[in-house]
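G.,

No rush on this.
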Amino acid sequence: MNTPIDSIDTALPGLVGAPAGPAGPPAPRIRSALDGGVLSVRLAGEFDHFSCLPLRALLDEGAALGARRLVLDAARVTFCDSSLAHLLDRWTGGGRSWELLSGSRSVRLLLDLWDRVGRADGAPEREPG
């Protein structure tokens, strides 16, 4: 059964301090589905410290509902910073795994750099794929 997590399945509203409307970047979009312990998430737009907050809430909700594996489609992400990598690292902290189904150039560059530089505790672990 494909169960969407509806609380965050829409375009995100403007955030305080973040540009909104035609002058600012397009609002990031998050689509998700939970099926048999697998949380599938599709991202589009720009993801930084502020715009990753709803994604963090979604991942927390998915984990609370029993998701152990994250499948991420980030082919339509136009910009991302280390906030996205930190969220993936946080996801694996509970013994969960993740894989990148597809990623934009921005996402691939971020994850390659994260793998190379790593952190004191190591880079976010992902399933081979």
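When you get to it, here's the other one too:
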Amino acid sequence: MPTISMFYGILILMYFYDHKKHSAPHIHAEYGEYEATIAIEDGSVLAGSLPPAKMKLVQAWIEIHREDLMADWTLAVSGEPVFKIDPLR
């Protein structure tokens, strides 16, 4: 599972072939012991949780990078290598 970005202690990951359990395009975010699966389309939480302030950062990052995330999602579900995406600054 490649890490596609990292900012403020949050890891953003995208698994290969990860469209079976959650069919919606999504990312995985990890912060310490917290983990969440978040939809790319609207930033909604599909599973898990993050502290509220960290979740807002991830959702803002998704908004900024939605096109790049969808391009990576297309690659990932095909088993292709994904690209790194700039962190939130």
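The first strand starts at residue 3 and ends at 7. DSSP finds one helix and five strands in the chain.

Enjoy the weekend,
O.
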